[in-house]
Design a protein that fits this description.
With about 200 residues, the protein is α/β, with parallel strands linked by helices. The chain has one domain: Alpha-Beta Complex (Maf protein). Helix content is about 30%, strand content about 25%. The protein is built from five helices and seven strands, in the order E-H-E-H-E-H-E-E-E-E-H-H. It has a seven-stranded mixed sheet with strand order 2-1-3-4-5-6-7. Helix 4 crosses helix 5. The longest helix has 18 residues. About 40% of the residues are buried. The chain binds inosinic acid (IMP). The site of inosinic acid (IMP) has 15 residues, from strand 3.
């Protein structure tokens, strides 16, 4: 089998590193939007679900380049907030508000709630668009609860308030390696790796 090129449709260099690690046993070369000179391409994520947004991004770049393209969309879903911030996680309460502000706001909204009433999950949808028009999709989820205070310095975004009851720690308190093993993104891309292997070898 020839080495295939896969474009990862993200501006986030950390995601490319994470995906490279997950796909390392496959005979593929990963290329970022920057490598393709497409870092300034603006794709409107107007889907209603994580999966729809991932598909929109992957298809747009695949159609532009004629290459296999992978994209993901992720976010935090808080049950007590009716699923917010959900697909609006990055722009919740305004794109320019800090995560310190967003996180404190969520903690405040959950005041008086205990245990299961604080349930939340990180969700990641991954889509891979192929030049033959086919689109593969995979989803990964990690379940947790909203903590009572922000804790930990690792990770990013909502990690300081995403508490894992079985570990007694937030995802900002565990190491990046430990997080990759159990994270929504790790799980979604591991599933995608298997789908892609079948597709490219089949
Ligand atoms: P996107 O998938 O790059 O569009 O990011 C969606 C947003 O969801 C991020 O900007 C964060 O606000 C949030 N998010 C997604 N994954 C994580 C995570 O692993 N930790 C903390 N926040 C996350």
């Amino acid at each position: 089998m020839d080495t295939k090129k896969i474009i990862v449709a993200t501006g986030n260099a950390n995601k490319v590193i994470e995906i490279r690690e997950i796909l390392k046993d496959m005979d593929v070369t990963l290329s970022s939007l920057k490598d393709e000179g497409l870092q300034d391409v603006d794709i409107e994520e107007n889907g209603k679900t994580f999966e729809e947004n991932a598909i929109i991004k992957a298809k747009a770049i695949c159609e532009m380049t004629g290459e296999i393209c992978m994209a993901d969309d992720s976010g935090l879903v808080v049950d007590a907030l009716g699923g917010e911030p959900g697909i609006y996680s990055a722009r919740y309460l305004g794109r320019d508000t800090s995560y310190d502000y967003k996180n404190n706001y969520i903690i405040k909204q959950l005041e008086g709630k205990e245990g299961a009433e604080r349930s939340a999950r990180f969700v990641c949808a991954c889509a891979c668009a192929l030049p033959n028009g086919k689109v593969l999709t995979a989803e990964g989820v990690i379940e947790g609860q909203i903590g009572f205070e922000q804790k930990g310095e690792n990770g990013f975004g909502y990690d300081p308030i995403f508490f894992l009851p079985e570990k007694g720690k937030t995802t900002a308190e565990i190491s990046p390696e430990e997080k990759n093993e159990i994270s929504h993104r790790g799980r979604a891309f591991t599933k995608m790796r298997e789908l892609l292997k079948d597709e490219l070898q089949g």
